[in-house]
Amino acid sequence: MRTSRLFIDTPLSAHTSVALPREQAHYATRVLRLGEGDRVVAFNGQGGEFEATLTRVGKREATLQLGDFLDVERESPLAVRLILGLSRGERMDTAIQKAVELGVTAIQPVATEFSVAKLDGERMHKRLNHWRQIVVSACEQCGRNRLPEVAPLVPLGTLWAHIPSASLHLVAAPDARASLTELPAPARDSANQGVNILVGPEGGLSQSELGNALQVGFVAVRMGPRVMRTETAAMATLAAMQAIWGDWQSTPPANSGS
User: Fold this and answer.
1) pLDDT, tens digit, 9 for 90 and up, residues 129-155
2) Nearest Cα to 16, choosing from 51, 55, 54, 67?
3) In sequence order, what DSSP letters do the residues of 156-192 get, joined into one string?
């Protein structure tokens, strides 16, 4: 049986006790149905993980006894920032969840001309927290010990003057001529390393948005002749990049846990 993993948003030290926050205690005892003496893996998103045991379980509380620290990393050597057009709730949630499982380093949601969902003020704040919780849950599930960043939603047009540094800037476009296999491998050992990949929402990017992306240095890449949903496009692109440049094409290190 697979050992359950718990994210704890606090500094952790080996061989100490940690009182779980109420929400985590509820999740551990009511959702996972863990009891006293059950073993788990604890991590705080800063790298590595801890062996741990539930030592006290109450109605609304639970305590973990941390054991040894394990310097386990499951991050891809390929740094990828997914610039993701804002889509309707479930599609956006799925894209973020699967992007984390596929090793994305950071996610930048953007509002585009064809974005159907509209967020502002308190709704935007709640949605951002929701997305970040999806990241936590995905890391608990897939074994990652570092949380990918989810940046606040911004209009795509404001991003052109502040594009995050990267070795390659790519945009998924159905009519593009270039394919990922024809591009040079992104750098891994410089300040401008990794990849920025822009994927539009349902309906795609407008012609002006695509033109602006190309003007500031993005390269359009094709994804086959079939029309994909936005969440499928994000997953397919990330999977292809991991296969070509990332950790799908190399033997995992001994401590990878794979």
Assistant:
1) 999 999 999 999 999 999 999 999 999
2) 67
3) HHHHGGGPPP-SEEEEE-TT--B-GGGSPPPPSSSSS
Residue among 203, 115, 214 at smallest CA distance from 171: 214
Structure tokens at 167: 């070795």
**Pick from 197, 202, 206: nearest CA to 113:** 206
Structural domain boundaries in the chain? 4-70, 80-244
Strand 39-43 and strand 149-150: the pairing is: unpaired
DSSP letter for 146, please.
Answer: B
| Residue ranges for the chain with pLDDT beneath 50 | 253-258
Question: Residue 104 contacts by C-beta under 8 Å, 6 or more apart in sequence?
Answer: 80, 81, 82, 148, 238
Q: Which fold has domain 80-244?
A: Alpha/beta knot (3.40.1280)
Distance CA(6)–CA(27), nearest Å, equals 9
CA–CA–CA angle 41, 43, 48 (5° rounding): 100
The class of domain 4-70 in CATH terms is mainly beta
What pTM was estimated for this model as a whole?
0.91
Which residues contact residue 57 at a Cβ distance below 8 angstroms, ignoring those fewer than 6 apart? Answer: 25, 29, 34, 35, 36, 63
Alpha carbons 32 and 28: distance in angstroms, whole number? 5
